[in-house]
Every structure is written in structure tokens, then in C-alpha cells.
From TrEMBL:
It holds the Pfam family NmrA. Residues 2-210 form the NmrA-like domain. This is NAD(P)H-binding protein. InterPro entries: Ergot_Alk_Oxidoreductase, NAD(P)-bd_dom_sf, NmrA-like. Signal peptide: none annotated. Transmembrane segments: none annotated.
Length: 279
């Protein structure tokens, strides 16, 4: 069987590719521009918005890792899922988002509902806030100013390491693990607010990292100065507003139950990504 990983250059997709062992089973990475990547597995052109790329990507595939990329409509993802099942795909694992069950308007929930009706084994992974947001979008402030500059107030998040989400996805794609329900919520071990997260950073990096608890306006201004798009800034503010309202504090034991080990802690993450936080 071949496993197709979409979003293979992304935060979770790259972890899925790393975790799957191409010597045990063929792994195919679907990316928009294969010439722009150097993955260690077979790489094909794949774009959710270009159905003409789907046929080759799905050739001989038994399991697919699905995700919902920014800028793509959910209908493209569900159309692709239909095409996958038509060509014989038996297992689909979808990267969803924490709270999709509570917010039916979320596009992720629309995709989940569609998958539940397919004639295939499907699993939606409702992932909490990725620790990798801190080594990604928020790393310039940590590196240059020693700040976790997010408008989340006292709100808590179940910070999960995207690598753990990738391992869970890989185990489900190979059939090594199965869910007894259509979706599972994946979180890290503890719900932390950003003040507590800053304390973890300070201890691991051995320099003071603060959480100034900035206003939404201050964060928007800083992001705009960094050249981020208005759409992205609005999306981010909405996400952190959910945290302020206490909607992201949930913790589950699903990672431990599925992997037989505890999820990575924020301290482990900071230690592993230390170089990305150096001033
Ligand atoms: N950030 C979080 O804390 C968080 C938490 C839970 C869930 N999520 C969800 O996770 C998803 C994002 O996953 P991620 O963070 O792993 O990805 P990511 O790091 O944001 O990377 C985006 C990926 O999407 C691919 N992509 C973009 N447009 C595409 C298209 N038209 N067709 C095919 N692939 C396309 C990109 O591939 P190429 O450019 O290489 O083609 C890239 O691999 C979103 O649905 C988000 O809501 C995020």
C-alpha cells in the first residue's frame, strides 16, 4: 500500500512523513511544487485546487493524510476525499482543529461531517494549538525582544507538539492504531497561559522571556509592521480571542492512549527548538 501525505511540507505533514518509514511501506508526498522541496520520499505534484493533479497523486494509494490549507475552500478538500475513495483509498486521516465539535460553522467541521459519511475508515484529529506556532510565527519576538507577544490574556491553551500529532496520524494511516470514534481531540499534557509558557521558556533558554499581555491592537500593529496580511492578522486575533474566552483550555489523554507514552511537554519542545529562539 502507498500512503499519500498532503501538506507534506507543512508543520504536521512533515512530521507525518518523518514518522512513516518508506522502507516498510511506500510514502508519497503531495506538494504544489516538487522542485521547491527536497523530501526524502517520492514527491508528486498535488494541489487541492487543481483536480488535474489528483489522479497521479492517488495512483495505487490506500491511505491519505488530508489537511485543510489556508486559502483553499473546504469543498476542494471534500471533493478530493470523494475522489480518493472512488479510486480505492481505504483510510483517510484528517487534520482538524480543537473545538470543531463545538463550532459547526468551522470549515474543519464541515469536512469532518463529510468524511463521516464516506465508505472508508476515517479519523479526524482535532489538534490543540501547536507549540510550533512559537518557533514559527511568534519566534521573531522571542528571539529579538524576549517576548511572547500574543493577545491571549489569562486564557489557557493545551499546547500540543505538532510532532506528536504527526506520529498519531502516521499510526492511524498504517492501521497500527484505530479510533473507536470518528474524531479525537489531541492536546499536550498541560493547559498553560502565556505567562506560564514564558516561565517555561525562561527556564529552558536561561534568559528572561516575558509575556507583556499586549492588547489586540498592539499585536495587530506589530504584525502589520512585519508585513503580515490583514486576513492573517484577523484570523490570528480571532484564534486568541477564543483563548481569552476560555475555549481552548481543554486537555485530553488521547496522545498517551494512542502512542503509549506521554505527549511532549512545552519544556521538551523549547529544548529541541532552542536554536530557533537564540537572539
Ligand atoms: N497552527 C495551529 O496551532 C493549528 C492547530 C490545530 C489545527 N490546525 C490546522 O492545521 C492546518 C494547517 O496544517 P499545518 O500547520 O501542518 O500546515 P502549514 O504548516 O500551515 O503548511 C501549509 C501546507 O499546506 C500546503 N498547501 C497550501 N496550499 C495548498 C494547496 N492549494 N494544495 C495542496 N497543499 C497546499 C502547503 O504545501 P506546499 O506549499 O508545499 O504545496 C503546506 O504544506 C489548518 O487547517 C489549521 O487550521 C492548526
Amino acid at each position: 500500500m502507498t500512503v499519500l501525505v498532503t501538506g507534506a511540507t507543512g508543520t504536521v505533514g512533515s512530521a507525518v512523513v518523518t514518522e512513516l518509514n518508506p522502507t516498510e511501506l511506500p510514502v508519497r508526498a503531495g506538494v504544489r511544487d516538487p522542485t521547491a522541496t527536497s523530501l526524502s520520499v517520492e514527491t508528486v505534484t498535488f494541489d487541492y485546487t487543481k483536480p488535474e493533479t489528483w489522479g497521479d497523486a492517488l495512483d495505487g494509494v490506500e491511505a491519505v493524510f488530508l489537511m485543510f490549507p489556508p486559502g483553499v475552500t473546504p469543498g476542494r478538500v471534500t471533493d478530493f476525499a470523494d475522489a480518493a475513495v472512488r479510486t480505492g483509498v481505504e483510510r483517510l486521516v484528517f487534520l482538524s482543529v480543537l473545538g470543531a465539535d463545538k463550532l459547526p460553522v468551522l470549515p474543519h467541521r464541515r469536512i469532518e461531517r463529510h468524511l463521516e459519511r464516506l465508505d472508508a475508515e476515517t479519523a479526524a484529529l482535532r489538534a490543540a494549538y501547536f507549540m510550533q506556532n512559537l518557533s514559527g510565527i511568534h519566534s521573531p519576538e522571542i528571539r529579538e525582544r524576549g517576548e511572547l507577544f500574543v493577545p491571549a490574556g489569562e486564557g489557557r491553551l493545551g499546547f500540543v507538539d505538532a510532532r506528536d500529532v504527526g506520529v498519531v496520524a502516521a499510526r492511524l494511516l498504517t492501521g497500527e492504531r484505530r479510533l473507536d470514534r470518528p474524531a479525537v481531540t489531541l492536546t499536550g499534557p498541560t493547559a498553560l497561559n502565556f505567562e506560564e509558557a514564558a516561565t517555561v521558556f525562561s527556564a529552558e533558554l536561561d534568559r528572561e522571556i516575558t509575556c507583556p499581555n499586549p492588547s489586540r491592537r498592539a499585536v495587530a500593529r506589530r504584525m502589520r509592521d512585519r508585513g503580515l496580511s490583514a486576513g492573517f492578522i484577523l484570523f490570528m486575533l480571532a484564534e486568541y480571542q477564543a483563548t481569552r474566552f476560555g475555549l481552548t483550555a481543554r486537555i485530553t489523554d488521547a496522545v498517551a492512549a494512542l502512542l503509549g507514552r506521554e505527549p511532549r511537554t512545552l519544556a521538551q519542545f523549547v529544548a529541541d527548538y532552542r536554536d530557533q529562539f537564540r537572539p
